[in-house]
4-aminobutyrate aminotransferase (Mumia flava), 454 residues
Amino acid sequence: MTDQFIGGPTLPQERRLVTEIPGPRSRALSERRTSAVASGVGVTLPVYVTAAGGGVIRDVDDNLLIDLGSGIAVTTVGNAAPRVVDAVTEQVAAFTHTCFMVTPYEGYVAVAEKLNALTPGDHEKRTALFNTGAEAVENAVKIARHATGKQAVVVFDHAYHGRTNLTMAMTAKNMPYKDGFGPFAGEVYRAPMSYPFRDGLSGPDAAARAIEVIEKQVGAKNLACVVIEPIQGEGGFVVPAEGFLPAVADWCRANDVLFVADEVQAGVARTGAMFASDHEGVVPDLVTTAKGVAGGLPLAAVTGRAEVMDAVHTGGLGGTYGGNPAACAAALAVLETIEADDLVSRAREIEKRMLSRLEALQQRDPRIGDVRGRGAMIAIELVEPGTTTPDAGLAARVAAQAHQQGVVVLTCGTFGNVLRFLPPLSMPDHLLDEALDILDGVFAEAAPTDGGTA
Ligand SMILES: *Cc1c(COP(=O)(O)O)cnc(C)c1O
C-alpha cells in the first residue's frame, strides 16, 4: 500500500510546499471541476485533497498545508481521527443503513443518550437526529412551534442558520446566501445582536435593546422561539457581551418563549467548553448541534426538554438518512475522543496560545481592530486604523497570502472583514506557532488597502 492512503495523525506533521499553490495537478482538477460542477458551489482554496490529519492537509501535488479551518469547524477531533476511522469502518462492514424509522439500531439511541447528558442543564431531555445543521435548525423551529402553538421566530443581526428556505429566512446576510433565492419563509423577525466591538453596549443593555424590539415588533404571545448562536459563526465570530445571553434566556423563560441555542458551529468542545452556552451557564430549551459532532460524517441533532420534544406527534419528525448508523458510530467515537483526550482543555490551551500571539500582532498593527473568540474559535476583525470601518480587501489579501504560504484560513463576517481560525484540536503546537509566524509575516508585508501608510 502506498503512502497515498495514509491519513490521520500518521501524516507527517509539517508544512511542506513542493509546488506553487495550487499546483499543476490541482489546477487540472479545477478545469474538470469547472466543466462538471455547478459554479454556484464556491471554493475557498482550490487545492485538491488526498489526505488530512493532525494539523495538516495533503494535496494531489504532495504539498502539506497547515489546517486552520477544520472544514468549517467540523473535524474538531482531527481529520481521519483514529477512533472515528475504526468505528466507522466496523459499522459500514456490519450494515450501512436500515432507516431508524423502519428498523432501528443502538447507535442512534446511544448518541441521543450522550447528547442528553452533555448538553447544558440536568433536566430530562430527548434528542432527534438529522443530517445537516440547517435541517436541525428547521426541526428545532418545527418543534418549538408545535410545542408552543405559536408561530413567530426571532433571530439576530449577523446570524447564520443555513441555506434551506426557512434557514435562509433566518440567516441575516444577503450575499451570497440569499440573493435572488426568495421568497423566504414568513414569521421570521430580526433583533439586534450584542456586538461589543461595534455597539459598545454592555450585555444587559444590548439585551434590553433586543427585547424592546421583540416586544414592540413581534409580541411574546405570538413568539414560539428565539434562535441564537451563543457565539456567532459565519457572521463574524461575534461573542456577545457578558450578560446578554442570560438576559435574553431569562426573558424567554418569563414569557413562555423557547430559547433555542444554535450550537452547530460553536458546540462540541470547539470553544473550550462542551457547549458555548456553558460559558455563561445558560440552559437553552433546545440545542442544535452538527458540525463538530461526527468528525466529518453528516450528522445533526436537536436536543431539548423532554416535554417540548415529546409534544410532537409520532411520525412528525424524521427523514430517510437522519441518524445514519455510520454517522452515529462516528459521533460516539468523537465524543469518546473528546473525553479520553481531554480536548476541552486542549481548546483552552489553543485559545491562550492564539490570543497572546494575535494580541501582540494587534499591538503592532492598528488594522486589527478586534481580537476575539473562545477556545479554538478565534478571529481578528480588520478595519481602517483607528476606526470601525471594515477592511474586507485586507482580509481577502491576507487570506490569499496565507494560502500561498500553505496555511488554510477562512474569512467571515457580515462585512467580509474577519479572518477566522478554527484549528482542529489535534493541531500540534509547533504547527500552530508556525501558522501564526506566517500570519505575522503576511501582515508585515500586506500593503494598506487605500495605498496610504498603515
Ligand atoms: C453551518 C451552520 C449551520 C448550517 O449547517 P449545515 O450543515 O451547513 O446545513 C447552521 N447554524 C450554524 C450556527 C452554522 O454555523
Observations:
- DSSP finds 14 helices and 15 strands in the chain.
- The pocket of pyridoxal-5'-phosphate is lined by residues 132-134, 137, 160-162, 229, 233-234, 262, 264-265, 290-291 (CB under 6 Å).
